[in-house]
Amino acid sequence: MKKTFPKPDGRPVIVPSVLSADFTRLGQSLRGLDKAAGWVQVDVMDGHFVPNLSFGPHITANVRQVTPLPLDVHLMVSRPDIFIGPFAGAGADLITVHEEAQSAVAACLGRIKALGLKAGLALKPKTPLSRAVKYFDRIDLLLLMTVEPGFGGQAFMADALSKITRARRTIDSGPRRIWLQVDGGINGRTALEAVKAGADSLVIGSALFSKRDPVRFMERLQKRIGGIT
Is residue 8 part of a domain? Predict the structure, then answer.
């Protein structure tokens, strides 16, 4: 049975990124992750906004078929406005667009919400937090990139921790509860650092799927971050 997208309640969640999964056995790669994961992220790249290509709505629909977890489609594309409809139709529960993209951010967020989905806004590492604050009244998730987007397996940028802390304080001072997600270089060590800084959603890719037993690794990590206050 498909799970609904959760509301933030102060407890951190782990979000597997299928970009690092084995697509020759996708169902097996994702099997059992719903025991500890909050939802699954699908990274979409167009080769323009970032120097890499990934996959489109068809693959997203395949992911939808093999996991009961909600799907977060992260659009690392120059024109997210033309992709929102197709990915909504492929089974997305949340669609995240970049503030730096060419499309009008407000219009994209409005389109996502009009389709009945959760809306996310992403910032690259060098983009000031201030450029996202004006959208806090219409987003469900703020994604702070902790690497330059485009490729998996990069090292976590430690200087992003102060930005995470500022974002946490800004969110907590407002009237709405918004997920604060980080993506890039998350592993057993940096996950703890990110949660201590204020993140409550951790996207994890290569550090998870490179493990012999991803489910066991994720369950152990969930217990560790769950104990952080």
Answer: no
